[in-house]
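Q: I'm writing up a methods section and want to include an example of the input and output format. Could you take the sequence below and give the corresponding predicted structure tokens, formatted cleanly so I can copy it straight into the document?
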Amino acid sequence: MFWGLVPKVLFFRRAKMIRLYCRADCPRCNDIVDVLQQLAVAFDVVEVAPGEVLPAELPEGAQLPMLADAEEAYQGSGTILDHLEQMKDFKALWYKYQSDACYCEE
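A: Here is the clean output for your methods example:
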């Protein structure tokens, strides 16, 4: 059985979810959430109330909005949207080349 060959460590390793840190009054954060929903990826939104201290897991001097994706952090709505556009492009290529079709001309 295949599962018996997989090291047990893999079962306990937790995947890091994309996390968006934003203020409740952020005008572009809804755009970011819309793009995340279109990408159909798992994500979590952490709203920080005005005047509230930033969560401890954020680096010192962090500016909101901030998107944490794996080990990378993206600050500012423009930078975040650029990163999500790259994810869209990657997803399109992934679906294109993971099918059973042949692309001999490319």
